[in-house]
Structures are given as C-alpha cells and as structure tokens.
Design a protein that fits this description.
42% of the residues lie in helices and 15% in strands. The protein is α/β, with parallel strands linked by helices. The protein has a seven-stranded mixed beta sheet, with helices on both faces.
Length: 235
C-alpha cells in the first residue's frame, strides 16, 4: 500500500471477549496499520483487554456516545494526525481485516472517497438475519430513488475513507445508526461512493443491539432519518 498512513478504527462497547481477537486479526493481516480502539464507556473489560496489545492506542470515552459518536472520535483522530485513509472495523469480530486490501484496491481503482465492504456482491458470506436483510433491501431502493446510487449493503460498517471524507465526517458524522445517513451526507457533498464484495462472519461472543423484535423500530427510525438528511439544506 505504499507509504500511505492507514488507521484502523475499532469502535467497541462491551466487547471484552472479542476485542483481543479483532486486534490479533488486524495484526495477522500482514499490513502495517495503526490501530485505534474507541472504548465507548464499556461496562466490562474492553479497555483493559485492548490495552494488553502492544502498540494499540485506546481512547476511553467518558460517556456512552453510541456508534456514531465513537466512530466520529476516530475521524477526528485520523484528521488531526494526518492519516491518508481510515478503515472502520467493528469490535464484534464480524469484519475480516484481511479484506481491507480489497477496500483499498477498490478505492484506488474507482477514485472513490468511501468504499463499503458489501456482503451481497458475489461473495459467499454470513448474511445476517432475514429482518435485517429486508431492511437493507428497503434502503437499497430508497437510495436508488433519492440519490440515484446503488448501495447493496448500506448498513455495513466495514468501510474505508480517504482524506476528503475523513475531513467531512470528522465534523458531521451522524449520531444514531449512522451508516445509511453517512451515504446521503457524502453524496450531498459531491463525494464518490463505491462498494466491493467482502466476506464477513457471525460474531462469536455477545449479541447485536438490533434484535428481530427491534428491527421494525430500527427500520422506521432509519427511513425517517434518511429522508431528513436528504431534505436537509445545511450541515
């Protein structure tokens, strides 16, 4: 990957059983990435376990900000420290760091400002629950309608950003369920988005915050947020 500075940001909340494996997998991917763990005021040993890994920087947030606030902390750090690229790798272990090279190659080849790792592009991968897949399909048609963009995996948090998108999102990253909203934000600012097929796996420990029972509420909330972001005139 040349001499570019690449930061891997790992937002983590109560991931004490996953965080060391995530860090190990990043190290095993073979690339010389810097790693920043954002401990979102976890109630367990997430911070302690992350700090056991040599060379890993850990930011302990004093309050639980949610995924949006945790990832925006990563953007602010990446921008302030001059990183060329930032990659989000979730702390639950579903993302596979060896696939970061695919994001990088897709970004270079397409000239995109953000590349999303998609579970639904000719890749045999863990597909998440049926209710979440239904929501992703709804979001797919919404994005085609509103911003004329095909996004097959809009809720994927496995993403790479270049310097331009890092700067923007360090200021305006959405707070709640931010992945779909960020797509609208980037497009409204004229930035380019692409996807590449990646393999993901099911989390080994813990449970997702989006359960089948909560999925209808999640979908309704995200759809409203997408329309709000689309109609918003100022950021």
């Amino acid at each position: 990957m040349g001499q570019e500075k690449i930061l891997i940001v790992v937002p983590a909340y109560n991931e004490q059983n996953n965080i060391q494996k995530v860090i190990w997998d990043i190290r095993e991917s073979g690339a010389d990435y810097d790693i920043l763990v954002i401990n979102d005021c976890s109630l367990d040993g997430t911070s302690v376990n992350a700090r056991k890994a040599e060379g890993v920087k850990v930011v302990d947030l004093p309050y639980n900000l949610g995924i949006g606030g945790a990832v925006q902390t990563g953007f602010k750090y990446a921008w302030a420290n001059g990183y060329d690229y930032m990659v989000q790798v979730d702390g639950d272990g579903q993302h596979m760091p060896k696939e970061v090279i695919k994001l990088y190659e897709a970004m270079v080849q397409s000239g995109s400002d953000m590349v999303i790792g998609s579970r639904f592009l000719d890749i045999k991968s863990f597909q998440t629950t049926w209710s979440r897949r239904l929501g992703i399909k709804v979001f797919y048609y919404l994005f085609r309608l509103l911003i004329k963009t095909r996004v097959t995996d809009s809720t994927s948090g496995f993403r790479m950003y270049n310097r331009k998108s890092i700067q923007l999102l360090s200021k305006y990253y959405p707070d709640d369920y931010p992945e779909p909203d960020a797509i609208i934000l980037l497009k409204k600012h004229g930035l380019r988005i692409s996807e590449v097929g990646v393999e993901m796996k099911e989390r080994e420990h813990g449970t997702s915050s989006i359960t089948p029972i909560k999925s209808p509420y999640y979908m309704a909330k995200v759809i409203l947020s997408i329309f709000f972001s689309y109609t918003r005139t100022r950021w």
